[in-house]
Amino acid sequence: MTRIISVASGKGGVGKTTFVANLSAALAHFGKSVIAVDANLTTSNLGLHLGVHLYPKTLHDVFEGKANIHEVVYDHKAGFKIIPADISFRKMKSVGVHSYVDVFYELLGDTDFIIIDTAAGLGKEAQTSIAAADEMITVTNPEMPAITDALKLGLLALRHETKNLGVVVNRVKGESQEIPIGHIENMLGVPVIGHIPEDKEVRRAIALKEPVVTYKPSSLAAQHIMAIAAKLIGEEYKPKIPIGLRLFGWLTK
Ligand SMILES: Nc1ncnc2c1ncn2[C@@H]1O[C@H](COP(=O)(O)OP(=O)(O)O)[C@@H](O)[C@H]1O
Ligand SMILES: [Mg+2]
Fold first, then answer.
1. Engineered SS bond to 27: which of 32, 115, 191, 225, CB 3.0-4.6 Å?
2. Atom 2 in ligand 1: which residue has the minimum CA distance?
3. What is the CATH number of the domain that holds 146?
4. Domains in the chain: how many in total?
């Protein structure tokens, strides 16, 4: 059965696209077939993160009736597929939930996971892909504004009957002012599926247009992302996390 997961965030810039690219690569590493979909129709950038941005046809063409969905599924060298959106500004009529549902329906059966890079915020563009998905993961940072937004996203998921799997806390530095996992779970009423440390290898990987899990599998960020992917599919994964990690304190606060 295909799992359709919307990766959402209240705020932009929290690391949603980074997580989508890396979760897709990590699931592919575990032998799953994955399609990452760029549903940021107005500010798309998944293709930029992955080093492929000049696609002849994109999701925009599908929604405008100019392409068939199978024409816009491209292979990425990290072992998963990508459905890109246009990176240039392209004016388009707003896309309804049924358009996404039709697109996903065509892909069912051929794939284990459809991972959606959802537009940031709580607007129509975000709501459309949350409604079309079966499950939602919220990416947040360990800061109050991002968490408040995540709470609102949880309410949206409830309204659209999309299962809220929980949150991934990204860019954890282990600093004392960060909100600890236990508090985040209490505030949101959903589990923290995992966290990803602040790691300069993530920025290096993005500069080289590669997911960090393939660019530097031994990095802290890559190992945490692998652990999150493993958890999603019920696989055993033991990260080789170096001793003396400051984050450990953050986790147990
Ligand atoms: N774990 C991390 N460690 C260090 N930098 C990160 C991490 N996650 C994201 N970033 C930085 O944040 C930027 C924004 O991430 P991005 O995935 O584009 O956010 P969003 O899709 O939520 O707008 C990236 O370009 C990268 O520089
Ligand atoms: Mg993004």
1. 32
2. 198
3. 3.40.50.300
4. 1
